User: Which sequence fits this backbone?
């Protein structure tokens, strides 16, 4: 009888533990689409690195991993941290002229900006999820999606063009 009670207590603990761990949807990589003229030097989602530098008007990423909860809940958000910088290296003077190189390196360093935003995760109820894609938009705006469709697919939920016009001034 003691063995039976111990077994039932253990089963109860195991069930309680399972109920406390949220079910997970399919996971995947952390990707990004950069709609701006700035390079994304690095970025992260909830502290998890997106890996690659992403040039202006390009896609990239590939960090591992993002796993959305099995059920979307109203108010779900993720924190995106990123650094922008000069995306055009046409002005790179090479290493032959030290003064020109140092001036260029200073310009690159001064152009770097750190950003952070907490953004809503759109409702993915009834849809398969595949990691997360961060869309960097002009004026330091960010959107995220968990769609399995690729950016060029007509069913992809973000419709902004890759080369978005940037306003002369951003609303703050």
Assistant:
């Amino acid at each position: 009888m003691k063995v039976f009670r111990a077994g039932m207590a253990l089963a109860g603990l195991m069930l309680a533990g399972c109920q406390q761990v949220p079910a997970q949807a399919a996971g995947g990589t952390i990707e990004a689409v950069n709609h701006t003229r700035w390079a994304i030097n690095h970025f992260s989602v909830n502290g998890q690195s997106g890996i690659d530098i992403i040039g202006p008007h390009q896609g990239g990423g590939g960090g591992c991993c993002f796993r959305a909860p099995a059920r979307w809940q109203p108010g779900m958000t993720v924190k995106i941290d990123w650094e922008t910088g000069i995306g055009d290296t046409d002005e790179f003077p090479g290493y032959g002229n030290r003064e020109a190189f140092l001036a260029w390196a200073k310009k690159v360093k001064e152009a770097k900006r750190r950003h952070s935003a907490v953004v809503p995760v759109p409702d993915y109820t009834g849809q398969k999820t595949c990691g997360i894609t961060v869309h960097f938009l002009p004026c330091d705006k960010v959107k995220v999606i968990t769609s399995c469709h690729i950016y060029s697919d007509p069913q992809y939920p973000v419709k902004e063009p890759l080369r978005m016009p940037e306003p002369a001034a951003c609303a703050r």
Remarks:
- The chain has a mean pLDDT of 83.
